[in-house]
Specification:
The chain has helices spanning 28-42, 66-69, 75-94, 110-117, 133-136, 144-151, 153-160, 169-175, 185-199, 204-214, 221-235, 239-249; strands spanning 4-10, 13-19, 49-54, 98-103, 107-108, 120-124, 129-130, 180-182. With 251 residues, the protein is an alpha/beta fold. The longest helix has 20 residues, at 75-94.
Length: 251
């Protein structure tokens, strides 16, 4: 299958789905398409809920595209590369609609930021997590604020300092990254559908006001996440990352 980003409107519900054959990793152009999808739907007052999901049966999201990472040659390219997730998280944050995350499989790096940028996240028991940035030679600078907001600084530090360790879906549920843990894909779909349709029956203005409360004290993220992207953009040019990339290319 070819990569895609699709938006579907079903009454008061919008579904945004992405897919990439490389483990649902997200190259820059797909991050831009996802950001544009959220920004367009945010303007539609008759939409109450947005569901974020990915295609395929394996990983939910493999994070940023490693194929693009190895091509970065200067700070400006690095800044643009890491700004992709910054722009998307901010678009999710600023959309007035409640965002429901359907996390069906393993999630790495930037994908964890997307899961935490959802207002209510539903994970399956297959949805393990790994924050792998430090192993590459950078850090989870852009997605860190989203993880900290959702689960706290202790969870962020534990994941960031154990970049080779997969955290179980049960662990993610206990720590508040997932608000509901489904025992299988059928229950994941049932819970997502039931919650989404239930939310459409509530006062949309009340939902919009709740969204503001969920994201209070984050107005500075427009600049903060871009500053974090610049940190990563500088680090990616260092000898450690170049050595890691060379070892990866020689495998």
């Amino acid at each position: 299958m070819e990569p895609y980003v699709r938006s579907t409107i079903l009454g008061k519900i919008a579904e945004i789905e992405f897919y990439h054959p490389s483990g649902n990793s997200l190259p820059s152009h797909m991050l831009s398409e996802l950001t544009n999808s959220f920004e367009k739907i945010a303007l539609q007052e008759d939409i109450n809920v947005i569901v974020l999901k990915s295609g395929g049966e394996k990983a939910f999201c493999g994070g940023a595209s490693f194929d693009e990472l190895i091509q970065i040659e200067n700070i400006e390219q690095g800044r643009r590369f890491f700004s992709g997730f910054a722009n998307l998280i901010n678009a999710m944050r600023k959309a007035p609609q409640i965002v429901i995350g359907r996390i069906h499989g393993k999630t790495v790096g930037g994908g964890i930021g997307l899961a935490c940028a959802c207002d209510y996240t539903i994970g399956s028991v297959q949805a393990q997590l790994k924050l792998s940035e430090l192993a590459v030679g950078i850090g989870p600078f852009v997605v860190g604020p989203a993880i900290e907001r959702k689960a706290g600084i202790a969870v962020l530090s534990e994941m960031a300092l154990e970049p080779a360790v997969w955290k179980s879906a049960e662990w993610a549920h206990q720590k508040g990254i997932y608000q509901f843990l489904a025992k299988d894909i059928n229950e994941l779909n049932e819970k997502t559908e039931a919650l989404t349709y239930q939310l459409t029956e509530y006062n949309p203005h009340a939902l919009f006001e709740l969204k503001k409360i969920f994201w209070q004290n984050t107005d500075h993220w427009d600049s903060l996440l871009l500053q974090r992207a610049e940190i990563s953009g500088q680090l990616v040019l260092g000898d450690f990352v170049k050595s890691f990339i060379q070892k990866f290319k020689n495998k």
